[in-house]
Structure formats: C-alpha cells, structure tokens
Amino acid sequence: MPQEFSHTTVLLEEAVSALVADPDGFYVDGTFGRGGHSERILSRLSNTGRLMAIDKDPAAIRHAETCFADEPRFQICHGSFSELQHFVEAAGMSEQVAGILLDLGVSSPQLDDPDRGFSFLNDGPLDMRMDTSRGESAADWINRAGEGEIADVLFTYGEERFSRRMAKAIVNARQESPITRTARLASIISEANPRWEKGKHPATRAFQGIRIHINRELEDIEQVLEQSLNVLAVGGRLVVISFHSLEDRLVKRFIRKHVKGDEHLPPGIPVTQEMLQQRLKAEGKAVKASAAEVQANPRARSAVMRVAVKTA
Which residues does the annotation say bind S-adenosyl-L-methionine (predicted)? Predict the structure, then answer.
C-alpha cells in the first residue's frame, strides 16, 4: 500500500466561512487534495446541500473514494479544475453553483513524497506531474526542450533571473546522460546559480517554473476563473487561495476586471450600471494566514485568500 503523506489545510476556517452562505446549496471544491476543505464544507451543509470535488491527482481521487465513500452529498471528479464547466454541466447544475473554492498550487503530500518528483531536497524520479496518468513528465521535457525554451520557462514561471545560465548548464549536462532524477537536476541548477539567497535553496525558483509549466498551472487558473462566471448562481461565491505572486496576480486582475465591468464603451455617452456588465463584487480585502497558523504550518506564510460574489 502506498505511503500516505499528511497535509495541513491552509486558511481552513476562513475559506469555508467565506464560501458557505447557503447550507442547502451546491458547492465545488476545485482542489480536493486530501479533503481538508471538503470535510469542513460538508460539516456546514444541510442534508440537501451537495459538494462536488475535483482533483488531477489519482492519489487524491483514491483518498476521496476511500474516506468519503459513505457520504451521499459528495462526489469526486478526476480531472483539472479547468474542466469545471464540463463537470458542473454534467451534474445538471450550470448557473446554480452556490460557491467555488480553489486552493492553488502543489499540495504537501505531493511535495513530501520523493517519488512524485517535486522536491529538490529529496532524490526521486523527475516527474512533477500532478496527474500521473497523463501528460509529459518533467524528465521528458527537460531532456527534449531547447535551451531557449528552458530559459523562458525558468524566467517566466520561476521568476529566475539566472535562467539562461541554468538552461545552458542543463543542456550541457544532458549531453553526458539524460537527466532523470531530482537530485541531479537540483545539483546542476545550484551550481549554475551564482548568487544563493539566504534561507532559500538555489533551485527553488527553477523547480517552481518547471512544475508550473509541466502542469499548465497558470493556463488552468485563467480557464477556471472565466468558467466560474458561467456556472455560479447570482450571489454565488468565489474563494481563491494563492501561494505565489503569479497566481495571485491572475486572481486579483480577474476580480478587478469584473468588478469594474466593461471599460471599452464609447466615451461621451451616458452609461448605466447594466451597460457596464459588472459581474463580480469583491468581498473584503485579501486575507493572509495568522501568525499562529504560520508558526504551526510554515507553508501558510505565503497564502493569500481573495473572495468575490457574482452579481450578474
């Protein structure tokens, strides 16, 4: 039996309290993980409330099928949250969703299991796929991509300023033998990094960039945000927890865009609220984890939660 790795859910109370306004409603947990948010959402629902959960990771699906097998209000869907609209329409609940929760990024069980290939601290096969049943692994990509493509991924998604040096080192190293292990890739990147940041592993940004690219994380976020407007009921709530600036920037811009409404109306004509097509209202300010939560779970330090309500 595969080893189970623990996961501490970040902003648990804050997220579920912001999400569940109607205990009889139909909700979506777009990032099931190990079910921390789902379990708390279900505890807030009535007997007629329902919860659909989605996850890419086959290990998360197995966990859901085992731990929530006797819960009639719950269903789990294997796939990306970028397929949100498809799953909701298949359930016959389009424009009837009371709330959507997205807890973005990689989960602790994925990070902590060396066999998943996300970690630069523990050696394992260089995989990094959240969905191990499909798609190109990090090893497949790192051994075929051109130097320019690798540099662009490290710079764009990892915000790594030494991306070109690292890409060159990767291409040179793979000519000797294919790069198939996380420890070897971390060593190559570390040696190519001339300025190590205090308290941060020199391969941190590069591994982040590769992971985001392999899993299409930012593209999936853009798609699920747009689809959320198609499936939420008026008054439905969107709750998103981000863990780095690239994710949070997308969420913040999306909410701001739909709070302001249509900015392309011709100048000089009277504009009504209806013409602006303002579809969201921001709910309060961004929420961060408390000092006590960060002390108990250091991974909560970078978490930012934003909440919006569909208005039209």
Answer: 35-37, 55, 81, 103, 110
Strands 287-288 and 304-310: antiparallel
Structure tokens at 245: 């600036």
List b or e across 269-304, with b for residues whose CB sees 16 or more CB atoms inside 10 angstroms: eeeeeeeeebbbeeeeeebbbeeebbeebebbebbb
DSSP string, 134-171: SS--HHHHHTTS-HHHHHHHHHHHH--TTHHHHHHHHH
From CA 84, how far away is CA 104, in angstroms rounded?
14
Which residue positions form the known binding site? 35-37, 55, 81, 103, 110
Are residues 292 and 312 in contact, defined by beta-carbon separation less than 8 angstroms? no
User: What number of other Cβ atoms are within 10 A of residue 263's Cβ?
Assistant: 7
Tell which residue, 130, 53, 104, 98, has the closest CA to residue 249.
Answer: 104
Residue 283's nearest CA partner among 305, 309, 257 is 309
Determine the average pLDDT of the residues in 48-56: 97
Distance CA 207, CA 97 (A): 35
pLDDT tens sequence across 115-128: 999 999 999 999 99
Distance CA 20, CA 93 (A): 17
pLDDT per position as a tens digit, 118-169: 999 999 999 999 999 999 999 999 999 999 999 999 999 999 999 999 999 9
Q: Which two tokens stand for residue 289?
A: 């984890």
pTM of the prediction? Answer: 0.92
Q: What Å distances lie between residue 223 and 78, 80, 131, 281, CA to CA?
A: 17, 10, 18, 20
Cβ contacts of 259 within 8 Å, gap of 6 or more: 278, 280, 281, 282, 308
Q: What is the pLDDT of residues 244-255, one digit of tens each?
A: 999 999 999 999
What integer is the mean pLDDT of 229-235? 98
Rounded Cα distance between 147 and 166, Å, is: 9
